[in-house]
Amino acid sequence: MKTRKNSKLIFDKGLSILRKVFLRKKTESLSYLWLGLEKIAASSYEIFLKSFDFDESNFSDSTKFEAHIAALFYIDYALAGEKVSHDVRGGFYKLGKSRIMEKFGDKLVDTNLSEIIDYRYYDQYSQILVKGEQNWLQSFYNLYEINLKGTENTNAVKKFPEIKKESDFEWMPNKMMFIEDEIANVYKTVKLVKELLSGKNL
C-alpha cells in the first residue's frame, strides 16, 4: 500500500515537472515568435519606404504600427500552414497584440489600438483568405498599401484611412516592387516559423 502511494507521488511529481517544462517551452516559443515578428515588421516597413521612395520622416510610428499588424497576420498564416493548434495560434495572437499595444501605446494618440488591431486582423486581412480569392495576395497588398499610406504625417491610426488620389499607371512600377518584395517577406516568415518550430534559434 505504501509502495503504491509512493509510486503515485513520484508519478504526480514527474507529471508536474513535465507540465512545467511544456509551459516553459511554449512560452519560449511564443517569445521567439514575437522577436521574429519584430524583424518581419521592420523589413516590411523598409520595403514600403524603398518601394515608393518615401521619406522616413513622413511615415513613422503609425506606419510601423501597421507593419506590425501585417507581420502578426503573416506569422499566423505561417503557423496555420504548419498545422499549429488554434490554442497556440490564439496564444500568440494575444501575446502579439499585447506587445504591439505596449510598444506603440505611448507613441500614438487618439486611437483605440486594440480595436484597430482586431479590425485589421479579423475584418480586413483574414476576410481576404476566408473569401478564397485566387489572387488573394494581390487583394491583401492593395489593402495593406492603403493602410500604410494612410499613416502619412500622422501619429493617429485611422480605422478607415484616407489617401491622396494617385495614378495607378504612374505608380505601377512602385506597386509591383512593393508586392514582389513583400511576397519575399512572407516566404521569409514561413521559413522563420518552420525553423523556430523545429527548435532553431533566431
Explain what this protein looks like in three dimensions.
By secondary structure, this protein is mainly alpha-helical. The protein has one domain (30-197). Helices cover 76% and strands 0% of the residues. The chain has 6 helices and no strands. Helix 2 crosses helix 6, helix 4 runs antiparallel to helix 5 (136-149) and helix 5 (136-149) packs across helix 6 (168-197). The longest helix is centred in the first third of the chain and has 51 residues, at 2-52. The chain is globular. Mean pLDDT is 83; it is low at 7-24.
Mean pLDDT comes to 83
Uncertain segments: 7-24
Structural class: mainly alpha
Shape: globular
Number of helices: 6
Percent of residues in helical segments?
A: over 70%
| Count of distinct structural domains | 1
| Residues in β-strands, percent | under 5%
Distance from first to last alpha carbon: 51 Å
Largest sheet: none
H and E order: HHHHHH
Write the layout of secondary structure elements.
Elements: H1 2-52, H2 61-81, H3 86-104, H4 113-130, H5 136-149, H6 168-197
Helix pairs in contact: 1-2, 1-3, 1-6, 2-3, 2-4, 2-5, 2-6, 4-5, 5-6
In short:
By secondary structure, this protein is an all-alpha fold.
Notable traits:
mainly alpha
